[in-house]
Fold these 2 entries.
Entry 1:
Amino acid sequence: MGNREKSEDYFEWVYAVVAKIPFGRVTTYGAISQYLGLRSGARMVGWALNSSRIDKEYAGLPCHRVVNRLGQLSGRYHFTGNVMEERLRQEGVVFINDFTVDLEKHFWDPARELP
DNA sequence: ACCTTGACAGAAT
DNA sequence: AATTCTGCCAAGG
């Protein structure tokens, strides 16, 4: 795990996109997989982030800005405590409730915003 | 080598 | 409208 050389390179592609999510904006697993044209689907995007969590080289990745299609912080349990929510609130992201962000307001679509 | 389990999402029931 | 099923594929047991 955390072995970037082997496995499919799309893990790298995922990291690249996540790294470009602007401050105060969020995107979804599905949007990323769609933008990258991954047949593997949104599930593998989450899997890639799971690897990045362990891989120190990607410790700075703003993976807290990735939520599921309903705006729910499905990855919150992979952060310590409620770090994911705290970070987003710090960026001024509006919450519907403790684990759901206002996607309408903050959604960032890589397919539309990226060249 | 087989089965289960996911940081998901969309279709089908 | 709500729940279940299905595609997807990498790890871990």
Entry 2:
Amino acid sequence: MPELPEVETVVRGLRKPLIGKKFTDVIIHWPNSIATGVTRLKKDLPGKKILSIDRRGKYLRFNLSDNYTLFLHLKMSGDLFVVPTISDPDPHARTIFSLNNKHELRFKDPRKFGRVYLVKDPNTVIGKLGPEPLEPAFKVQNFINLFSKRKGRLKPLLLNQNFISGLGNIYVDESCFRAGIRPARKIESLKEVELVSLYKAIKYILQRAIKHNGSSFDYVYRGGNFQNHFSVYGRNGELCSKCKNEIKRSVLGGRSTHYCSFCQK
DNA sequence: CTAAAATCCTGGTGGC
DNA sequence: TGCCACCAGGATTTTA
């Protein structure tokens, strides 16, 4: 489900209720989601204190005491809530992290694609991720350099987390629209001036989406409203806001793709 | 090599 | 109302 702006929004919301708390237990309703093993998680997590929470790509990272790191990936339908232990049970809560203050962190995930990792070495989880698009150190020249020797279509490359981290289906389509580039463009055909505008578009779209607390959908609503500002995503059949031609939909890399065939070259 | 398709899953929607 | 095909914000693996 969530891409960089949604994960960032979740992280910001979890800091206040979680930092300084300790895990006391973990209840696992879907063992397949525990990527680093049910036994290890049950044994090693209780007693660990949450020192800080941040994000790397689409992974939430909990920095714990004793140099442990807990990573959560929400995949398509995951979400996280901190609620009192006495709250009504949630049928979609696949993993429940008990805390030492009569509250618990619930990993809600209807589609069960989400994953939990508890590790000592963070690189085993995030070691291969590409650069963070919003890091100040990530300059336009760094972005341009990424494209050398790359082949194929633009969109699948931007979705590759080892190329650049954090982008997903929505924000790739929106960024391509803003840059005036078709998602299906061949990498080799991209001019430097186009990569510059793509770089700017990605930063602009992600920052603006974070300001709106990300995007919400019917079945995963978390308060964000950037879905009301989509230019092309999910708007196939509607008219382009810039040129009034029809927004098209195609399938690229197995993903639904939205673009304006007039504005995007 | 690239690229599409299948896979992991549930749930909502729209057509008939 | 029921049934069914299809769709979904991700990412990896298999097949062509």
